[in-house]
Batch of 3 targets.
Target 1
Amino acid sequence: MSEPGIDVADLTVRFEGNVAVDTVSLSAPMGRLTGLIGPNGAGKTTTFNVCSGLLRPAVGRISLFGVDVTRRGPAARARRGLGRTFQRMELFTSMTVGENVALGREARLAGSNPLWQQMATRRQRTTVRESTAEALEVCGITGLAAETVQSLSTGQRRLVELARVYAGDFRMLLLDEPSSGLDHAESEHLGRILRSLVEDRGVGILLVEHDMALVMNVCDYLYVLDFGRLVFQGTPAETQASPIVRAAYLGAEDLMEMADLSDPTGGEG
């Protein structure tokens, strides 16, 4: 049985009386790449915001590694090992790649102590250096460590953001459209890194993504939201074949395109 990662039970979120997420339950265990997909306005980011502690649900429970964290804030969840990236990247463009990545580990060590930089021990500084070096290597950007972020392409910046959250030693990652702005080759490279994090390092990932080729190629299991409700769950193959998903969200033509992209034979035979 898989180790629990993040679990959502009967989640309901309302904004001024409008139901944005309606009794959604999902599970993203450790060592699995779980996708959360759906059209714009389906409730994906709202669900992410509740998972990370930015929003409080009207009803429902959020568990992290088997512990109820529904009433815990983002900082408390981060200290337990939950990391998140955002659709709009939040990098310090005037700082180097290495400095940005190091912030991931420094933030975990500092907690709520604003004087951590002045009080850090030699061992803690060594931990930061080692974690930064490992994250840069895992994401394939060691050669960019001395470059400033403002000089990088969008694809490279996405990898810096991923490296920063990995350097923070977060065991469970919430990734919000990490392929946004990437070309096909960059998306494929990102997909290989995500699979490596899951398969080689046992990280759990919950992924919100609009790039259906990436989703179908890298995810192990999918949840499909539409108008705030869960309309389907299953493997990528089951999702592609689902009449419910075809009718409610993707459409037969899009699904066939995804099948061609994820099938190296092009569907022959």
Note: Residues 184-201 form the longest helix (18 residues).
Target 2
Amino acid sequence: MDDSLGIEQQAAMVRFPGGSYVRAIAARPETARGMSDNLILDEFAHHKDNRALWRALVPVVSKPSLKIRVISTPNGVGDMFHEIMTADDGLWSRHVVTIHDAVADGLPRDIAELKKAARDPDTWAQEFECVFLDRAGREWLSYEEILAALEAPPLPPYDGRPVYVGMDIAARGDLSVIAVLEDVGAGVLAHSARCR
């Protein structure tokens, strides 16, 4: 920060002898607006709000000669990077490079050792095999499960009978369960709902 002017530096630029340059900016929508340049978005899936950033950046490359390159490791499904990589829109030249591809092309890595170091199948799949996981590093409902719940028929109206709710909070790596039981009479409990 330049205290004499009260101006915070928003970008850093490196100029090369041939005249080309690289300008790095903070990955915030307000920083990117108003620019007009070629863009490289690095680890785009891991930006805090990549949809808002995308809305700000698409106009930046609206000039036909400009390009946008999006590079990232997957970070689950449902974000803007996942949408770009899986859309059937003909707009993008998509390329996926897994650890297997990189090693086959000469990257000096021991795949067996890396897999052992990853310590779990989800880390290996996402970080090394570029797989979009529903639960990448978290135990939430999947995108498909949420959509299915939105399309499910409504439950019958509640008729006032006693209802019991229990929750089993899972240990790391297990599923949490919420069970709703309804007293249907004669000491019989009907299992009416269960979710993760």
Note: The chain has two domains: 11-129, 153-195.
Target 3
Amino acid sequence: MFLSVFDIFKIGIGPSSSHTMGPMTAALRFLESLRALSTRDDIRRVQARLYGSLAYTGKGHGSDRAVLLGLLGHEPATLDVTLADLQLKRLETDKTLHLDALPPIAFDPTADLVFDYGPPLPGHPNGMMFLALNEDGAPIVMETYYSIGGGFVVNPADQHAAQNDACDADACPFPFSSASAMLKMAKASGLSVSEMKRCNEEASRTPAEVREGIGRIWQAMSSCMDRGLVTEGILPGGLKVCRRAPGMLKQMREEQSSNRRQPHAATDWLYLYAMAVNEENAAGGRVVTAPTNGAAGVVPAVIRYYLDHCLGADAERIDDFLLTAAAIGGLIKHNASISGAEAGCQGEVGSAAAMAAAGLCEVLGGTPAPAENAAEIALEHHLGMTCDPVAGLVQVPCIERNGLGAIKAVTAASIALRGDGSHFMPLDNCIAAMRETGEAMSTKLKETSLGGLAVNLPEC
């Protein structure tokens, strides 16, 4: 399996790729299945049920709103917030879906969207079921979907993941599905990780399409960061978490202008960039999965750090950074998981740090072996990290974790660049360890808000 850079990096909305973008996409796919029915004119009511992690943290992650938006026909990448809000208000009032190629369908957001806190569905902790009922209340169709992290959605009925491989294994010039295979192909071809990844992408797209598509990804990342750096206020959800990025930016600019910078000021900038992205994500803004929304700040923060603080930085190499990062993200997703509900935060911020470390290592001159080493170092030092969001919101501890993940990524790249790429623990083994750790981790510590920091709050 070869995952495209455009599957790893998807433009969407916050606060969660698995809990917001996934359910919205699943609802859209359900509508497509209804339109394909010969009995679609018999549909009178639609219902949706969220299970497992989607039930426990769905309201904090906006899963309820996401399902409604999907049933109204909205896609994460093109959501018009103003139009969506108007349609949501209308739905609350008339409790009816008015959709192209379908009859008017009853849907009461209060009664027909159910958070089921019983046992999760068997396929994945993020399971959901959609039903279409006839006039007698009998189901015409029932569809099950799993949101498996990073906005990917699986429908077990058709056995197809909601992901478009850049090319089939037989068509890819470099069909590596492990880090060891990647290194062997790099050695045999004399190509870098980004060059091999680009060849695979261009097996199904023109060079211009690849270049323009990656440009759109970076533009969305950069714009998200810029908004987060200047937008003030309180994040939604009830925790009353203040946005800190604008105040921190002002403070650091004052220190810079008065030459009162500490030696670690560059690290503070790196942390700030990541915080800005994830505050914007927590507010439901437009963001890019990298590889998930909850970990969206790490990769763009390290890229901005490279551009603003690294000697010899070249904006033309952003493509190489993102291609290398996507190659590592694809390996992790294929061989383990990027889902917080399945692997904990090691699968989200840990994966993001590994991706960013490899990307930075390459653009700073690292060959494939040091890049693989950088990814392993970054991932290794996130193993065992839980996903325990307070109140089910992607705020505490998620925002700060992105900043620390970015710092680990830069450190990992720096360490790897001082060696020749040889190291004790291969990336493949580290990925396997992450998968096994996630499987052994208590469900309470995997995006349910039932354990860890989520239940250990200071008394106020």
Note: The first strand starts at residue 11 and ends at 13.
